[in-house]
Task: inverse folding
């Protein structure tokens, strides 16, 4: 649970780069060892650090989808379920849980790097909010740029009317994040289309056989679904699929 918390906290820190209001809450803390000051000031208003913290907590689901491989994994698993024709097996909760676990497996090194370079100095009072953002953004940016297509980057650079930077480190996060999401969706659909092909062949063969022997009243899916499940189990499909997905990120 501590590792989960560190990874989530590290990724959540980076979202401040898109929050101009965070610039006003970046004063260093004089007594970092005493933790956050949860008491209200003399004027009675809620401290800004609590407002920012609660805002980040509400944005964690969006961060997981936008800044991690979660979207690609979930799209692939959804295509697999549709190709098998099992409708609701595995359930949505199972697929989302598996995607989250695999996402944590992939993002743990990145989260640890952000935690060491940005979160710990911020907790010790060595960095303010914007300084922590600057120190924590590079590991996440390098990870996303590794799997982002140049075509997608060029699209958002053109929409933002920003000239192409000389170095990848100079690409703004507001350009990297949407380009990364588009690249992940395209990759997920490509893998899903490849998954459909062998199961489509089974559907076509079963439909041709049932039509040729005159079994027109029997839906082909009644016969093809068990055959597809048996084929998937015999080839150890989950091991092959998850292994291939993990290798695609290395």
Result:
């Amino acid at each position: 649970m501590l590792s989960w918390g560190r990874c989530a906290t590290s990724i959540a820190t980076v979202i401040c780069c898109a929050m101009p209001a965070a610039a006003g809450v970046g004063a260093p803390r004089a007594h970092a060892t005493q933790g956050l000051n949860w008491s209200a000031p003399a004027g009675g208003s809620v401290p800004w650090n609590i407002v920012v913290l609660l805002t980040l907590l509400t944005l964690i689901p969006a961060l997981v989808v936008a800044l991690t491989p979660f979207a690609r994994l979930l799209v692939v698993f959804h295509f697999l379920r549709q190709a098998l024709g099992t409708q609701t097996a595995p359930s949505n909760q199972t697929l989302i849980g598996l995607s989250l676990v695999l996402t944590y497996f992939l993002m743990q090194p990145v989260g640890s790097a952000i935690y060491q370079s940005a979160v710990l100095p911020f907790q010790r009072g060595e960095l303010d909010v914007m300084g922590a953002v600057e120190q924590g953004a590079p590991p996440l940016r390098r990870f996303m740029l590794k799997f982002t297509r140049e075509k997608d980057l060029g699209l958002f650079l053109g929409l933002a009317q920003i000239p192409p930077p000389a170095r990848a480190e100079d690409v703004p996060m507001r350009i990297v994040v949407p380009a990364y999401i588009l690249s992940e969706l395209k990759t997920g659909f490509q893998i899903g289309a490849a998954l459909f092909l062998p199961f489509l062949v089974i559907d076509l063969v079963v439909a041709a056989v049932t039509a040729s022997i005159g079994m027109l009243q029997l839906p082909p899916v009644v016969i093809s679904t068990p055959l597809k499940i048996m084929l998937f189990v015999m080839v150890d499909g989950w091991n092959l699929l998850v292994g291939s997905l993990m290798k695609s990120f290395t």
Notes: Residues 118 and 132 are 5 Å apart (CA to CA).
